[in-house]
């Protein structure tokens, strides 16, 4: 499986570290419950998932990938708030 | 099919029609669900129970694990819990009148670094205080127990020490599933295979029923025992879990003459190896590094596993791999399970079993049955409640659970 790094292009998935599901960070003075939810609770969907990836053995940048959790496909990768790039083939 | 004496062999369990109400509905026909049904019926007289399985019983993690049983964990809570399970496994063949082929051949966890030795010394001390036979041993004793291992200083990561756990071993995992199924069926529990749950009816924060591909059921008590798929079932009841699902791969070689009579695990090399009674070597590794529900096998896994096994046992270099497979694991942040009540009344969980669920089947079944029957959490389950993530009281077992099977 390959991932399309928005900076470096298609690379083997083992160059990357997966950072888990994208979710909203609690505000500056969160309650403990909000923190616990942010830290531990996960949607764990069967289907499309937005998640963080880090190009560990490349440009050392974090980006977002939209990946399917059954078909091992990636339909888009992009920097947070940046332009979309094409996904890497499975 | 007829046996040698011409008689029809007895059915192990019935295939009844689905009724429209049950006292208890258990989702998931693996070792956890079936054991819970068995102990509910046997010890608490609750026999109006349906076990719903979307494929066939034992088709998930219960039939895909590498069948290793041990109790040499890291936290006192974990050690106590897994040790009760190991003791139940010791008596299980007698209890179920079914040969589960439990072979307590000993379990070796190898250390290749100073930090691994420190963790193992810690584990040995915790284990011994809890009465579990477990100790740290050095290369001369390792070589005596397992002469096939290369304990010289030639490998890239030499074997420095090992945690030795004599009561650990391997079991016939399908037999455990079938034994519990037959036992539960004998007490009147209904097992419904090819019956997939499609929805859970919750009214006023209380479970009212379950929708399945075979019809709708009314019930006040639902147990989610679906391991890798547990987030999807919990979502139907509106409960969120601290779980991500990761594939775990394993493989088996062609059959060899008996030569390895101990389970060998290396956390640093991410491998575990044992030889079954049929002579095949069963080998497994760590979970895949990102979440997925896919049960595909990968060449990457096979290559890295093989190279690590050969570092430990160079003599296996010409052995052929027969097949490989994957299962999916419901990983929690602290590598401990999630058992007990949820914010939705009547919706119970026995999930978060990650890569260590099979060895906990009997104790989970017995104690979850007690919880359902008494509507109170047994003391041994208290550390594993879902609410520990709100109160930030985690039970960190990563040091003993991540690869050590």
Annotate the secondary structure layout.
The complex is a heterodimer of chains A (90) and B (405).
Chain A (H helix, E strand, L loop, with lengths): L1 E4 L3 E4 L4 E5 L10 H9 L7 E7 L7 E7 L5 E5 L5 E3 L4
Antiparallel strand pairs in A: 1-2, 3-4, 4-5, 5-6, 6-7
Chain B lengths: L23 E4 L3 H14 L4 E4 L15 E2 L6 H21 L10 E5 L2 H16 L5 E3 L1 H7 L15 E5 L3 E2 L2 H14 L3 E3 L4 E7 L2 E7 L2 E4 L2 E4 L5 H7 L7 E12 L7 E4 L4 E5 L4 E8 L11 H14 L8 E11 L6 E4 L5 E5 L9 H14 L23 H4 L4
Parallel strand pairs in B: 1-2, 1-12, 2-8, 4-14, 12-19
Antiparallel strand pairs in B: 3-7, 4-6, 5-6, 9-10, 10-11, 13-16, 13-17, 14-15, 15-16, 18-19
Helix pairs in contact in B: 1-5, 1-8, 2-8
Kindly summarize this structure in a few lines.
Chain A has one helix at residues 32-40; strands spanning 2-5, 9-12, 17-21, 48-54, 62-68, 74-78, 84-86. Chain A is mostly beta strands.
Could you walk me through the main structural features you see in this protein, from its secondary elements to its overall organization?
By secondary structure, chain A is mainly beta. Chain A contains 1 helix and 7 strands. The model of chain A has no long low-confidence stretch (mean pLDDT 89). Chain B is built from 9 helices and 19 strands. Chain B has helices at residues 31-44, 76-96, 114-129, 139-145, 173-186, 230-236, 299-312, 361-374, 398-401; strands at 24-27, 49-52, 68-69, 107-111, 135-137, 161-165, 169-170, 190-192, 197-203, 206-212, 215-218, 221-224, 244-255, 263-266, 271-275, 280-287, 321-331, 338-341, 347-351. In chain B, the strands form 4 sheets. An 8-stranded mixed sheet of chain B has the order 5-6-4-14-15-16-13-17. In chain B, a hairpin with a 2-residue loop joins strand 9 (197-203) and strand 10 (206-212). The longest helix of chain B is centred in the first third of the chain and has 21 residues, at 76-96. The chains are: A mainly beta (90), B alpha/beta (405).
Total helical segments of chain B: 9
Strand order of the largest sheet of chain A: 3-4-5-6-7
Low-confidence stretches of chain A: none
Rounded to an integer in angstroms, the radius of gyration calculated over CA atoms of chain B is 21 Å
Give the SSE order of chain A as H and E letters.
EEEHEEEE
> Secondary-structure element sequence of chain B?
EHEEHEHEHEEHEEEEEHEEEEHEEEHH
Largest interface: A-B, 25 and 21 residues
Span of the ends, CA to CA of chain A: 5 Å
Instruction: Give the helix tally of chain A.
Output: 1
Structural class of chain B: alpha/beta
Main sheet strand line-up of chain B: 5-6-4-14-15-16-13-17
The total beta strand count of chain B reads 19
Number of strands of chain A: 7
Helix content of chain B: 25-40%
Main beta-sheet annotation of chain A: 5 strands, antiparallel
- Give the mean pLDDT of chain B: 95
Structural class of chain A: mainly beta
Looking at the structure, what is the overall shape of chain B? globular
Q: Any idea what the radius of gyration of chain A is?
A: 14 Å
């Amino acid at each position: 499986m390959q991932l399309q790094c928005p900076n470096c292009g298609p690379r083997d998935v083992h160059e990357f570290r997966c950072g888990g599901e994208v979710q909203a960070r609690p505000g500056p003075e969160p309650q403990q419950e909000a923190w616990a939810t942010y830290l531990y609770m996960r949607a764990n969907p069967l289907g499309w998932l937005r998640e963080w990836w880090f190009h560990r053995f490349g440009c050392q940048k974090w980006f977002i990938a939209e990946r399917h959790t059954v078909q091992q496909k990636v339909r888009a990768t992009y920097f947070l708030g940046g332009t979309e790039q094409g996904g890497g083939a499975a | 099919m007829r046996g040698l004496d011409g008689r029809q062999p007895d059915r192990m369990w019935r295939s009844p029609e689905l009724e429209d109400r049950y006292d208890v509905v258990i989702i998931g026909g693996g070792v956890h669900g079936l054991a819970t049904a068995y102990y509910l019926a046997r010890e608490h007289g609750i026999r109006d129970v349906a076990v719903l399985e979307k494929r066939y019983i034992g088709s998930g993690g219960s039939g895909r694990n590498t069948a290793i049983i041990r109790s040499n964990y890291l936290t006192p809570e974990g050690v106590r819990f897994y040790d009760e399970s190991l003791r139940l496994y010791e008596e299980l063949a007698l209890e179920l009148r079914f040969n589960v082929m439990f072979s307590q051949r000993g379990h070796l966890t190898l250390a290749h670094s100073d930090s691994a030795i420190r963790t193992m010394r810690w584990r040995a001390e915790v284990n011994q205080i809890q009465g579990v036979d477990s100790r740290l041993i050095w290369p001369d004793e390792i070589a005596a127990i397992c002469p096939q291992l290369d304990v010289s200083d030639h490998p890239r990561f030499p074997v420095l020490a090992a945690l030795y756990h004599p009561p650990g071993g391997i079991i016939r995992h399908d037999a455990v599933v079938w034994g519990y199924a037959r036992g539960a069926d004998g007490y009147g529990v209904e097992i419904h295979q090819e019956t997939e749950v499609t929805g859970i009816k919750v009214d006023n924060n209380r479970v009212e029923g379950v929708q399945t591909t075979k019809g709708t059921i009314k019930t006040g008590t639902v147990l989610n025992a679906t391991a890798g798929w547990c987030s999807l079932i919990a979502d139907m009841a509106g409960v969120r879990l601290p779980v991500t699902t990761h594939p775990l791969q394993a493989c088996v070689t062609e059959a060899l003459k008996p030569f390895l009579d101990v389970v060998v695990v290396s956390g640093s090399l991410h491998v575990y190896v044992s030889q079954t009674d049929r002579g095949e070597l069963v080998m497994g590794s760590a979970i895949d590094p990102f979440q997925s529900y896919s049960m595909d096998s990968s060449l990457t896994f096979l290559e890295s596993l093989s190279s690590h096994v050969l570092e430990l046992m160079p003599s296996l270099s010409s052995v052929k791999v027969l097949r490989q497979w994957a299962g999916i694991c419901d990983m929690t942040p602290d590598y401990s399970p999630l058992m007990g009540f949820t914010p939705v009344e009547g919706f119970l969980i026995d999930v978060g079993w990650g890569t260590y669920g099979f060895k906990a089947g009997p104790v989970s079944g017995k104690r979850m049955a007690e919880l359902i029957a008494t509507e109170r959490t047994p003391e041994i389950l208290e550390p594993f409640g879902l609410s520990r993530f709100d109160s930030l009281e985690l039970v960190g077992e990563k040091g003993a659970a991540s690869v050590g099977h």
